[in-house]
Amino acid sequence: MQAAENLANKEEFAPIVEYGNSVLSHLNLIRGRTVIPPSSRSAVLGAHEANRVASSVQRTTQDGVPNITYIFHRSPASSAELSKKGELKPILLSELKWCERMTGRVLVVRVIAPPCVVEGALCAVIEDTNGSVHILRIYNTFYPGCAYGEREIIPVWGNAGGGGGVALAIKGPYCEAATEATSGVRVDHPSDLLYLSQGDDLYPNAWKTFFPKGSIPSEKLKDEGNECFKSKSYRAAICKYTSSLKRNPTDSLKTSVLLNRSQAYLQLEEFSNAAADAEEIIALSGDQPNEKALYRASRAHYALGQYDRALELLQKLMAAFPQNRDAKSLLSKTKWRLDENKLGKYDWSQLIEEARKSAPRAEVANYLGQVALSEDGTVVAKGDIKAGELLLCEKATEILYPTEIQDENRELVFDVTRGILGQGEGWRLTQKIASKIRSGATSSDDLFGLAKNLKIFGEESHSGKAIVSDKQVVADIHVLEAIREAYAIPFPTLHPAAPSNSPPAQGLGLWIIGSRVHVGHSCLPNACRSFFGDILVLRACRDIKRGELISITYIHPSLPLNERRTELARPPGVPCTCKFCEIEEQEGTELRQRRVDLVEKVKEISQRAPAEMLRTDAGRDKSNSPDDAVVREVAKEVATLCDELDATYTQPSVDQPRFPLLEPLAYLFACYLYLGPSSTEDALRVNARYLSALGFSFQYVSDTGEKGEGGDMILIQHGYYHPFIIKTLVQQASVCWQLGKKRTATAWKRIAENSMEIITGHRKLFRDGYQKVFESLKWEI
After folding, report:
1. Residue 670: pLDDT above 90?
2. Which CATH architecture has domain 213-233+241-343?
3. For the whole prediction, is pTM greater than 0.70?
4. Contacts of 685 by beta carbon, 8 Å cutoff, 6+ apart
């Protein structure tokens, strides 16, 4: 996935931009007028049913251009409501104002028709306590893994139009009329929508269920909840169970209801709530362990990444119920997660296998090695670290893969406030992040910490703290979108430097600890970042001292200085004060341009013997290959230019890597290899020079044996770990092997494996990528 592109200036999208601007004009025209709800209840229900039927048909696009499905409008008052529902004053549909956020008010309604998706919104028909009806339009909701997602967000039961739907409290209601088809009460922030149960202070008396004399309301409500659960209407079941708990159930009934509600929360992946219900039963059980409560609490804690508590509960469960196979399986997985979390002990083969899938998601725990978050939030070394050491493994907060967005469901999002039109992938990711907040699977404090000092649409600066209201984290979609825009990154599911039969999948994801907020930038970094599916990995690329800030390269230092600074200045901005930038600043543009000109000369000269024609394999076309004399002459001229280019540098290559020198040296190596055995030693020297240009330094230990297998190579100084060095090191190993210098070749291969681990995350990828190369040399890898 590529970074977002503004399509608003493209001619083919002009009609969409024009339409969006007309909508904004219309909204401004009617803003502040009193809403008049539709007078015909049957007409609203009929129109909604027609939309519901139409939405069930597979949606396609015309001429391959996605339809616009979401027009985003924001006014200064449209942030999420922070007040608790009990602090808000009730309001009716007829008291709403068009396009005005009714701050400090709460609208209580119930759903009277099944929901459907229209124009990117989840829609349903609602009525208030006066019987007035309107359309409810909910945006930015996403239920992962739930086949019944729409009805879990807007649950309804009973006959359409006959009442009986879940009662909802909409905090700070906003009524919008973009067009006749898209008018209604609009909810942008997931936390503005609350589900009411009987016994809630806001639940209208007229909607309460009245039970026959002699019946037990708590039991009846539990039974109704069970019926909803059986029909897989989990949200409705939760509301019924909650109502039952508010009707003074007996202790045994309370236990049963809490168990059922915990299971319903698990079905909706709301793990914090599931854990709370199960833990309450465990506390009430005393010395009599409850098998179901222990298992459900364990499942919830496992999903929340709270593996120590999950282990404690599972051990208690297995001691009392040793035949529970599900618990035994979960116990084994929990121990694996703890090994990952505390020791960094991962099954790398399994991670690689998962990463090769089209939409990989690994089931692993996070790991922090010899690093920690400092007081200012940056990741620092808490001890001395050796090059290659695993620093961090972090599972993405949320990710999105292209395969998860079917063509018929692709969206265009037009932000009329900022004039930005783009694909809807970013918004889809934001919605998924919001769902993680609801599940509790992500630390809200850590997530909203990314928002600190971010400008929300260029206006207020966020505090960076999570806010809780009505026992849930306030999920302001604008804040989450600002976080996503600033810190979500496109990523490959495996590092491209690891050779593969097919390129790795691409995705868009958000990581918290591995973000620019915590891991700094340097053109001369001390760590390398790689990915295994949705797992971000950091490894030290040189020895690191205790207290040193951990840094990676966000913008490749081979880019011109001004381009690097422009990219790094993009919000939220990442400063770079490394020695490399300081040196380039002092050199000035004239010297840097001199290097560009020399590289261009190399490219011009190489046209006499193009690199693609310098093949040495058996399948080359000798009739079309350049003459050796020509290649030898070209190599001589290129070598001279390489010397001139190298002479423009005055600082050590470890402080100022010679990036412009890499391409000419790679070409020169190809020339010498093409010229055959007489130039093999020259090829080895050029590759050694390539590594030296990046700051690497090696010590050769002479061969003292009688076999003449060459000496050992020892890496004594780490340089810049450019992905291309892996191939260079493999070339060194291969050539030395062919020359009979097996000890030297083995040393180069060892260094290549270590480099593969640092750059791509693990050395197992070395075997996958280069096994055929070594097999062709009859060299067992």
Report:
1. yes
2. Alpha Horseshoe (1.25)
3. yes
4. none
